[in-house]
Amino acid sequence: MMELIKHDVKINFVSKFSITAVISVILVSASLFALFTKMKYGVDFRGGAEIQVQFAQSMNLDNLRKTLVQNGFKGAMVQTIGEAADNEYLVKVLASEQNLNEVTDKMSAVMNKEFAAQGVNIRKIDIVGPKAGANLRISGFQAMLWALIAIMIYIGLRFDFKYSPGAIVALFHDVSIILGIFAFTGTEFTLQTVAALLAVIGYSVNDTVVIYDRVREHEEKHAGRDLADHINNAANETLSRTILTSGTTMFISLAMFIFGGGAIKDFFFAISLGVLIGTYSSLFVAAPVTLFFDRLNAGKAKSPARA
């Protein structure tokens, strides 16, 4: 395997934990504040209208979205559905419960007026009420919660339950900061975001498991050594792999974010953030939390002896 980092590198990651812990606490606290005060939810979670349209020719998504915004449909989302040759698109616009019918009528009129030359055909109109949107939002967060619980059980069975808290705290850290960045930047939280966060959870835990696996190997080979030494050795030995894997994934994700178009931009924005933050948390969140609980348990074990 190609090595960007020399195999005998000796970076003292553990010595940085006190600094990174403060940084992480600040970032997570700011993110949670933004999540509850600034988060901008999309049509799926706030309620609105979904219109499925078909054109006689291929349409540019950005131009279609721009036309809708110019006609007063703020926060309009447009995405392709089906095969590319079908030229079918799903358009989502925000609307309150009081003006859902008004918005759908206006949307139909705008479509028929602005895109008559492109052979527009309105195939289906669906309405998402605010209550349904709220329930969908709760379901999205529940999906992430169940994913975290399942991963905690997996880590406990795969390694030891002393590793589970570190993995869960790291994943909570990653998801919180991504949501916070979405809130601060005004990026809408949609079903695409939920899908991206679930992908990030899987990616991040895989990175953490690689380090945990190496830590366990060192514990078996060098029993009696301090866990901090095992963590440092494991992090250094997997550093080259981490940089190559994360760098490759980040390159592809950024390429899709920049050149993929508006329909998938938010998805790969979350993925790019997840790769960056997940790599950081595997080294500077999961490991120190595991070390903290290990020393806490060791202190409890010594307490009766002192008495």
Describe what this molecule looks like in 3D.
With 307 residues, this protein is α+β, with helices and mostly antiparallel strands. It has helices at 17-37, 43-46, 61-70, 100-114, 130-158, 164-185, 191-221, 227-237, 239-259, 262-306, and strands at 48-54, 77-81, 88-94, 121-128. It has two domains: 14-41 and 132-302, Multidrug efflux transporter AcrB transmembrane fold, CATH 1.20.1640.10; 48-128, Alpha-Beta Plaits, CATH 3.30.70. It is built from ten helices and four strands.
Element layout with pairings:
Layout: H1 17-37, H2 43-46, E1 48-54, H3 61-70, E2 77-81, E3 88-94, H4 100-114, E4 121-128, H5 130-158, H6 164-185, H7 191-221, H8 227-237, H9 239-259, H10 262-306
Antiparallel strand pairs: 1-3, 1-4, 2-3
